[in-house]
Amino acid sequence: MKKSYLIIVAGLAVAAVALFFVLNNPVGRLVKLVVESVGPDMTQAAVRVNKVNISAEGKGALLGMLLGNPKGFKTDFALKAATVEVAIEPASIVQDVVVIHKILIDAPHIIYEKGDGGTNFDAIQRNVEAYLGTDRGKGKKEDKSESKKMIIGSFVIRNAKVNYNGMMDLSLPDIELHNIGRKSGGATSAQVVNAIIVELNAKLVLALAKTAAINAVGGPAIGIGMGIKSLLGK
To answer: Which residues contact 232 (CB under 8 A, 6 or more apart)?
Structure first.
């Protein structure tokens, strides 16, 4: 009888915890808060997420994610994704190192814009690198969300739809990064964003060069190189 009672109590406790996660989604709200508070500081651009749904098991998605442009650019955004799939180790949320098993951005819309001092992704990369350089902990009270580190098992951007300056569509190869922060025992959010932006920016440059060459932008051989520099505003 006592054993049956304990089983019932345990079952009710599990149900209560599950109901709490369904109704309150604490992990999702924490993720949304961190993304929208730290992201703009790092990129000097708007970063918004409409909603974050993450289950008690740590699986879910960021819905309606948008990365805006820094000042000086005219297009509405740099990157927009309807859904970003994530898988987090729930218990790690309260630890110093958050373990993220997977981040998948499928079919995002990317606008690659040329400005006076380079492209919008050049500007975002510079801003993130500057943020890393200031170290945020020097002379300022460090935000708890910024002091946390993370390990990301798999980060993937695939099937991206890219447009350059309203002039041409680019074919962007899928981007895959694995074990971010694992060797160092965890990477800060700024280090993670920097690794992603550096890789994405490099792939965008290559995609533009390939498309420009195919379309004979700037003419043959050496002219293509000059044409690319002109397209990138460098």
So the answer is: 114, 118, 119, 122, 205, 208
Of the CA atoms within 13 Å of residue 63, those in its CB half-sphere come to 8
- Distance CA(203)–CA(209), nearest Å, equals 10
Q: 160 near 200, Cβ under 8 Å? A: no
The per-residue pLDDT for range 161-215, each reduced to its tens digit, is: 999 998 899 999 999 999 999 999 999 999 999 999 999 999 999 999 988 887 7
Contact 150, 187 (CB under 8 A): yes
Q: How many CB atoms lie within 10 A of CB 164?
A: 21
Tokens describing residue 116: 């006076």
Residue 91 to residues 23, 25, 88, 97, Cα–Cα distance (Å): 19, 14, 9, 10
Distance CA 54, CA 62 (A): 8
Rounded to 5 degrees, φ, ψ at 169 are -90, 140
Q: CA 63 to CA 46: how far, in whole Å?
A: 16
